Amino acid sequence: MDTHQPSTAPARSKADRDARLAVTVFPILVVLAGLAGFLLPGPIKAGAPAVPYLLGVIMFCMGLTLTPPDFASVAKRPWAVALGLVAHYVIMPGAGWVIATALALPPELAVGVILVGCAPSGTASNVMAYLAKGDVALSVAVATVSTLVAPLVTPALTLLLAGSFLHVDAGGMLLDIVKTVLLPVILGLAVRVFLRKAVAKLLPALPWISALVIAAIVAIVVAGSASKLVAAGGIVLLAVVLHNGFGLGLGYLAGKIGRLDHKARRALAFEVGMQNSGLAATLAAAHFTPLAALPSAVFSVWHNLSGAVVAAWLARRPLPEVSPAAPETAAITAQ
Predict the structure, then answer these.
(1) Which class for 324: exposed (0-12), middle (13-18), buried (19 or more C-beta within 10 A)?
(2) Which of 70, 87, 268, 314 has its CA 20 to 30 A from that of 250?
(3) Alpha helix stretches (DSSP H) within the chain
């Protein structure tokens, strides 16, 4: 997610192609993985113990994409980053609780929807912000900070909003997020700092590694609740579509209310509306039931489809303010 490379027209064109390929192939991979989990639940759900380690791989890849300038951008734009962070952790958890209550979801599904809302930003949000001609530097900053604070914020919000549905072990959840999210990200960042040249050669492969690993998590999660998927699938899809739609729309509105420019508003739409559904699925499976992880699996498919559609629509709408385009090619190859 390095946004500080020299910009050229050919590089931008290649980044566009890579980003469009990623958002086309990734949902297909996840859908195929979900089908495999549904049709072959027996052998696939045996991989459940590996899910936390698979998530660790994804977060390690995220850490590899980070650079010190990404953190410097937070200090340079504290208001915009703080607004994005607050919007993310207010809108999505709140929307999850409202939707779960309004649809009268069973406790396990209600907790699953709320847990998705309490997760940090999704790793594909930077790609969508790029395709939408949004502020990718802001997108990277908000995604990074939301991930780093997740060990404290995600368990606390889940306990607050989902505790009335099922027992929530906030302490155990905190430890799990530290082990599967924070430590791998820090390790990846350290490897990037000390082995910069070697990591640079791996950057183009990282999004595909992450995509394959997320697909594997989805397959395992779906396999775990395959027997209940037919009965619960419709209401879960409705909840996910509403949840993601509120996030995208209200995220953009938050940027508007905060008087951010149009590029920043586009970035916040995706930072609020796209979640780290892999983390939510991992926590749901570990602390609740396989059925509670189902909303995360469906969200993983849907938010990439909706994100790609919204990004394409925004990209065709001219920006009212014309400003020099920031080079973001590495941010795309890193996601």
Answers:
(1) exposed
(2) 70
(3) 9-39, 41-45, 51-65, 68-76, 78-102, 107-118, 125-131, 136-148, 150-162, 170-177, 183-194, 196-202, 206-224, 226-257, 262-273, 277-287, 294-315, 329-333
Residue 319's pLDDT is what? 78
Nearest CA among 133, 130, 140, 119 for reference residue 62: 140
Q: Which two tokens stand for residue 47?
A: 């991989």
Least confident of 9-13, 119-123, 155-159, 298-302: 9-13
Average pLDDT over residues 260-276: 94
Q: Among 171-185, 199-213, 290-304, 314-328, which is the least confidently predicted range?
A: 314-328
Token digits of residue 288: 């609740």
Token readout for 127 is 């790609």
Cβ atoms < 10 Å from Cβ of 58: 26
Tokens of 118: 């309490």
Instruction: Indicate the residue type of 86.
Output: V
Cα→Cα distances 263→127, 190, 317, Å: 14, 31, 11
Rounded to two decimals, the pTM is 0.84
Q: What integer pLDDT is reported at residue 334 of this predicted model?
A: 39
How large a percentage of the chain has pLDDT more than 90? 45
DSSP code of 204?
G
Burial tier of 318 (Cβ tally within 10 Å: 0-12, 13-18, 19+): exposed
CA atoms within 13 A on the CB side of 299: 34
CA distance 24 to 103: 31
Contacts (Cβ under 8 Å, ≥6 apart) of 258 = 79, 80, 83
The total number of residues written for the chain in this structure: 335
C-alpha 33 chain-centroid distance: 18
Write the Ramachandran bin of 327: left for phi over 0, alpha for psi from -120 to 50, otherwise beta.
Answer: beta
**Dihedral-angle region of residue 8 (phi above 0 means left; psi in -120 to 50 means alpha; beta otherwise):** beta
The answer to whether 276 and 116 are in contact (CB under 8 A) is no
